[in-house]
DNA sequence: GTCTATAATTCGATAGAC
DNA sequence: GTCTATCGAATTATAGAC
């Protein structure tokens, strides 16, 4: 028996409030109307049950078409996932670039804007973002490498912002790589639990996490703070400046 | 064609440094030697390729046995996952309880110890912990609910520690639920990127993240800090004290 | 308890009509 | 571009010998 135990049927997914996000048309003009519907359906399916537990029948049923219809618009199920991943990561990267970010010249302002935008984007698009975070190793190695590059560029935006604040004295001395990991983790992990009908709007959560990010790097008056909270050089193994990650 | 595109074969997984953790025998005396080997093999497979992309052949091949041997020790593939999940979450909960934690009576010390232990545990057991975080919705609804309860109790340990520090004036006024979410996200998200052969030992990372957690709730001198980093009451929608999560 | 062999099912993808 | 029908492969789990 190769039974499939998908927990959500297409019908159940339709109105589940946990699967609502603000990505009605994240897919731009790049695809036709039917293909966009397929992508939207696939995002819901992948987010609810995972890539491998989703069948091509599930995806096409979500737009009211037969299983074969999918292959008119995409050559394979993996390529449907890849397009979701590519567009999601491209949009997330563009969201922490551009004039709204560049306008913040003060180091603290820059980090605040970055974290606010990064967090709010992941919250607004949390269903698509969840697929982007959870299904990376369902990609082919070639596609995985392309997505990794987009993720690396996003990380670099944060790394530069923090490093500049440390260099100009706005932020405390700290391990830049470690603290950037922590900031990104806030935005990445929210796709696991966030829901639009919960208590936090994307903007409110973005503001709150921006506060946390700034607190992570804020200079503190030495005797206002208990010793261990003051950043200090680490001993033990080598510094983490050359660390590489599994997923970029 | 129902082709399987697993990125890691059993042979490749054997020596991959990214799949090494300190869980040689996380499974206690509860299982026999062969069953423990099956669990260890399954953890590697699930972590590398995901539950649905792992076959029962992969798991049993990891201990040098035939596919049918698995069913002598476990009634189904899902129950292998459930045992991993149950033991992992039980151990993670026990790790933030017990005398070592109770010994820290000062609110700041308590939060520091909690975060250090939570982080270090996830780092030490990052391969098993990755399965625990990423494969939750491959469980049956009944098993999922049991794991959710264990996760809820772990969250409560943090919530109580933060709430007590706020109440006794050690920590700043803040949204307890939101800030606890942020702290847990640090420990949870590290299973995505952590590797034992990287620059951070579990203990070092635990210490660093404990610093970050304390900074999240530290009282700040009002004029040492830029305004937005000072915690303030939120407007907009209702407070998040009754928020529920998808995964607990 | 482990094996070989296979049953029962389901999947991704294609063929060919319209 | 969409459909029905189906192929070939691969899966979970079981049967029965040893």
From TrEMBL, chains A, B:
The residue ranges of the HTH tetR-type domain are 32-92
The terms under GO molecular function for this entry are: DNA-binding transcription factor activity; transcription cis-regulatory region binding
Supply the alphabetized keyword list. Answer: DNA-binding
> Which residue ranges does the record annotate as region Disordered?
1-24, 220-248
> What InterPro entries does the annotation carry?
DNA-bd_HTH_TetR-type_CS (IPR023772), Homeodomain-like_sf (IPR009057), HTH-type_TetR-like_transc_reg (IPR050109), HTH_TetR (IPR001647), KstR2_TetR_C (IPR041490), Tet_transcr_reg_TetR-rel_C_sf (IPR036271)
Q: Which PROSITE patterns match?
A: HTH_TETR_1 (PS01081), HTH_TETR_2 (PS50977)
Which residues fall under the DNA-binding region feature?
A: 55-74
Give the compositionally biased regions (Polar residues). Answer: 238-248
Name of this protein = TetR/AcrR family transcriptional regulator
Q: What taxonomic lineage is listed for the species of origin?
A: Bacteria, Bacillati, Actinomycetota, Actinomycetes, Kitasatosporales
